[in-house]
Amino acid sequence: TPAPIAVIGAGIAGLSCTTALQQAGMPVQLFDKSRGPAGRMSTRRGEGWACDHGAQYFTARDPRFQAELARWLEAGVAARWAPRLQVLGGLGEHRPDAGIERWVGLPQMTAPARWLAAQLHVTLNATVTALRRSSDGERAPSWQLHTAEQGWLPQHFSAVLLALPAPQAAALLELHAPALSERCSAVRMRGCWALMLQYREPLELPFDAAFVNRGPLRWIARNSSKPGRGGAETWLLHAEAEWSEAHLEQASEQVAALMLRAFAEHGGQAPEHWTLHRWSYADSAPALDAGCDWNAEAGLGLCGDWLHGGKVEGAWLSGLALAEALLRERRPA
Ligand code: FAD
Question: Separation of 331 CA from ligand 1 center, angstroms?
Fold first, then answer.
């Protein structure tokens, strides 16, 4: 049997790539540093509440992703979200868009990823910190992985596919593939502060979600207005990218206070409790449209949102594109 392929990163890109390879009959193993799959399609759970604090919803414009969404709907792990949507702070970057359909994981954003992962060989709590290529340059590529938790893993892989944010991929490729590494380093990814708010009673605001075009906030959502969400009334605030970057090192209390003050300007009350999360690599400015990157000689590949439009849909398509690129030369006879 051929050596398996390693995919690093069980976000939606890595899951899409691994699924496509497995369906084509390739042996493939997926690794992620976290306790669960989903990456930035994530949900934070607290006592009696839960809140999607990464991706808020996704679109499905490409027919292939529409077909995938149909499978998710069929499996009951996604649903349409039709919030009462406003644009606050005047017209700017975000404009009202009535035509668009918005989709979310059901009953939380992680659901599609968990559903995909359940059908794959996934190793969690595995933080890949280095790659090692076997010394013989003439033979087909053979790679080993070093993880923070287990050291060098004994398995040999015929390819390593990195489904990671660009800066994390750059770090792993520095030693063996400087050109690929530089390509990743050229992409700037920006941070984002996410503030989750818990209330005893529903807030009486005239919207369930809002794009914000002025001040520190960019997005406000009543998480409990998404389908299937139980538990306490929960709201989510995302800070604007430049503001987040400027305040990334600031103390949590100060960041939360500034974001709450901005929410109050739009009618938001002070919450019972708040929980703050700092995303180091939320989005790419701007994202590329290459689809993916596959170096057959080295047996190294890249996929992820930053290579294909910077959103959930693009990430899924990027993972598929990388699997297809690899399969074009390696499809089992
Ligand atoms: P990720 O989801 O980041 O997956 C990468 C995975 O790699 C992670 O699971 C991580 O744990 C793992 N990993 C990292 N380093 C290592 C390592 N060394 N070893 C092992 N594993 C590792 N998109 C939309 O479509 N709509 C939105 O409304 C939206 N809003 C967003 C808001 C925020 C705040 C954020 C953060 C993102 C938002 N996005 C949105 C973007 C969307 O979440 C991403 O485009 C998409 O989820 C990226 O998927 P990915 O698989 O490329 O990367």
Answer: 29
Length of the chain counted residue by residue: 333
pLDDT of 96: 65
The full set of domain ranges for the chain reads 5-330
Give the closest residue (by CA) to ligand 1 atom 24. 311
Q: Are strands 189-199 and 143-147 parallel, antiparallel or unpaired?
A: unpaired
Can you state the angle between helices 312-330 and 63-75, rounded to 10 degrees? Answer: 110
Q: What's the CA gap between 21 and 75, in Å, rounded? A: 21
Distance between CA atoms of residues 25 and 17, nearest Å: 13
CA-nearest residue for atom 23, ligand 1, is 311
Is a pLDDT exceeding 60 seen at residue 69?
yes
pLDDT at 333 (0 to 100): 53
Query: So what CATH class is 5-330?
Result: alpha beta
Ligand 1 center from residue 204 Cα (angstroms): 32
Query: How would residue 1 be classed by pLDDT, with cut points 50, 70 and 90?
Result: confident
Instruction: Say if CB 180 and CB 295 are below 8 A apart.
Output: yes
Residue-wise over 64-98: b if at least 16 C-beta within 10 A, else e?
ebeebbeebeeeebbbebebebbbbbeeeebeeee
Residue 82: both structure tokens together: 């039709």
Is any ligand 1 atom within 6 A of the Cβ of residue 316? no
- The side-by-side arrangement of strands in the sheet containing 128-133 is 128-133, 143-147, 151-152
The CB of 193 under 6 Å from ligand 1? The reply is: no
Residue 7, ligand 1, Cβ within 6 A: no
Closest CA to 263 of 208, 231, 219: 219
